[in-house]
Amino acid sequence: MSRSWHIEPHFSQRNNWLRASILGANDGLISTASLLMGLAATKPDSSTLLITGIAALVGGAVSMAAGEYVSVSSQADTEKADLAKETHELTHNPDKELAELADIYQSRGLDKALAYQVAYALTTHNALEAHARDEIGINTRIAMGYGRTRKYRFNRLFT
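RESULT FIELD:
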């Protein structure tokens, strides 16, 4: 008989897109409204006001998309470099890395023997994932998905 585990959803790890979307929408609305209010003070005709508003919205959207793309890309590149460095260390200094992981678990309250058991078990299962998560603070499942994230966020602008 298979076991079904209910894992309650947590949103704090996934709220970056929401925060960026709210920031972008707020920035776009305020900057466009401010531009249009300034222009309206000069009493332009309605077509000038409309074209200016559309240009401001498109320019703001392209700017936010480019900024988000660069931001996500730089984070992905940094995390990729950290993962490469950790892979090198795991290959060339496995005992030191095991001790390092055990020290992390000891600092979280495990006794030394249990910390080494946990470190050994996690290293045996997936050393890079364990070190990325507990030493560097990178979720490798998220980090490996940055390419899809970049493509999605950039394409979202145009759909």
